[in-house]
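Summary of Year 1 activities. Much of the first year was spent building the evaluation harness for sequence design. The harness presents a backbone, in tokenized form, and records the residue chosen at every position. We chose the following record to illustrate the format because it has been used consistently in internal testing since the harness was completed.
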């Protein structure tokens, strides 16, 4: 497991140390790590190809070398690992507090951090867990390309809303990160969809559902397709050759 700490995290830690908020940042980063560890371990159980964990001052990202065509149920399972681990860790801290191993002050900080992280992380903005959850749900209901476009639009709306509520340096760094992530999603939209189709051409997936479509832009996750009554493999073979 590779753990990377983003440069912005060091900057925020320095400001926190100088302003007397180091304890808060210290507990925040521990909670973030526990959350990402949940994603990582659930990814291990789902046989995801792990790559690394990146720690930011406002959250973390667990990166996988996994196919875009991976089962939505598997992806949901790995996604839920973060919040499950975070809640279990909170319960552990709660027990330590009850046994007087942790002071009221530290427990209050930890409780506040958990509430803020959970509330923020489940906003429907990519690449936050809420945005990924939204993407999984829309992938189940809509064609892959349509789902990605819809999630980008929703992410932009909520990021703009969040932009007008910026009050701290941490919030500014967060908004910049979210805007950058959304721009990357927009730029990679066509590339991502072509990769999605190429995976289907190169690999054999065991999809249980069959879907009939008349346009290659309507491919959907967890489904095997017939395009104008032509088998998906034959169609993709012509497309890429």
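For this record, the design step produced the sequence shown next.
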């Amino acid at each position: 497991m590779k753990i990377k700490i983003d440069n912005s995290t060091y900057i925020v830690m320095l400001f926190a140390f100088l302003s007397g908020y180091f304890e808060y940042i210290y507990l925040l980063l521990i909670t973030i790590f526990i959350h990402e560890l949940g994603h990582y371990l659930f990814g291990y159980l789902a046989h995801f190809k792990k790559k690394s964990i990146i720690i930011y001052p406002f959250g973390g990202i667990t990166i996988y070398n996994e196919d875009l065509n991976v089962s939505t149920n598997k992806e949901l399972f790995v996604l839920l690992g973060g919040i499950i681990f975070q809640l279990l860790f909170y319960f552990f801290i709660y027990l330590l507090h009850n046994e007087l191993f942790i002071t009221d002050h530290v427990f209050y900080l930890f409780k506040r951090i958990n509430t803020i992280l959970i509330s923020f992380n489940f906003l429907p903005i990519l690449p936050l867990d809420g945005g990924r959850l939204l993407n999984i749900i829309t992938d189940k209901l809509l064609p892959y390309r349509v789902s990605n476009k819809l999630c980008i639009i929703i992410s932009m709306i909520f990021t703009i809303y969040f932009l007008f509520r910026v009050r701290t340096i941490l919030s500014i760094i967060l908004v910049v990160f979210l805007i950058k992530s959304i721009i990357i999603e927009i730029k990679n939209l066509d590339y991502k969809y072509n990769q999605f189709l190429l995976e289907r051409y190169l690999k054999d997936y065991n999809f249980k559902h069959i879907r009939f479509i008349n346009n290659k832009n309507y491919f959907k996750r967890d489904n095997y397709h017939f395009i104008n009554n032509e088998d998906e493999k034959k169609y993709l073979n012509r497309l890429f050759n």
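The longest strand covers residues 50-56. Quantitative recovery figures across the full test set are reported in Table 2.
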